[in-house]
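Ops channel
N.P.: pipeline sanity check, posting one input/output pair.
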């Protein structure tokens, strides 16, 4: 069996569909036809038809990546991101679905070498995605946890929860602020992290190359 045949790929992204509510209060995507298959038959040779559709959505839809531009004026936008920082990152997955506290503390990271890695926080909260209960009581990364990851020199931090910050804290966003200031990418609303081993996988999450835009959906996956 070849390496290609034996490797496993786990899809870590939610499916985007018309009407999907990712984050309460933000608009859901709409999908409308620009050219229907029926109309296209008048434009092409017999037996040839196409569908062209228009999707309208906020960048914070589905599973998405935040670039520094999302938080900081003058920060790097999606078009500025190096593929080296998005593709094939060594993944360190922290399986925390049995935690009794919402806030993820720094202590959970102490026993691993994390420099240059994608730190992926498996809380199990993705089981609520798309339902009202997803919006409240969600796990998040504490400020102390953020500071430890910044000091450790990680490349990316992802979570399978509503937000990497505590959205019930009154507007404070230490995780976004510190991580993006350090050039560390943030990926939110991951899923299926329970299928990825604690170490040994590679993580990829690439958004389109859009200038002056800070956040966009990604097809995130792990391979091992």
């Amino acid at each position: 069996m070849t390496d290609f045949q034996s490797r496993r790929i786990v899809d870590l992204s939610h499916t985007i569909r018309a009407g999907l509510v990712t984050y309460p209060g933000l608009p859901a995507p709409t999908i409308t036809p620009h050219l229907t298959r029926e109309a296209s038959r008048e434009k092409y040779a017999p037996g040839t038809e196409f569908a062209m559709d228009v999707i309208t959505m906020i960048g914070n839809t589905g599973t998405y990546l935040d670039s520094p531009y999302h938080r900081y004026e003058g920060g790097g936008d999606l078009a500025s991101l190096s593929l080296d920082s998005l593709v094939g990152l060594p993944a360190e997955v922290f399986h925390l679905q049995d935690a009794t506290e919402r806030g993820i503390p720094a202590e959970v990271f102490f026993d691993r070498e994390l420099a240059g890695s994608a730190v992926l926080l498996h809380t199990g909260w993705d089981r609520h995605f798309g339902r009202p209960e997803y919006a409240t009581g969600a796990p998040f990364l504490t400020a102390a946890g953020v500071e430890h990851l910044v000091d450790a020199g990680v490349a990316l931090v992802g979570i399978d929860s509503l937000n990497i910050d505590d959205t019930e804290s009154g507007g404070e966003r230490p995780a976004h602020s510190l991580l993006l200031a350090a050039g560390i990418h943030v990926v939110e609303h991951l899923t299926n992290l329970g299928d990825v081993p604690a170490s040994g996988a590679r993580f990829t999450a690439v958004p389109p190359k859009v200038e002056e835009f800070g956040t966009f959906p990604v097809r995130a996956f792990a391979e091992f």
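N.P.: looks fine end to end. The longest strand covers residues 89-95.
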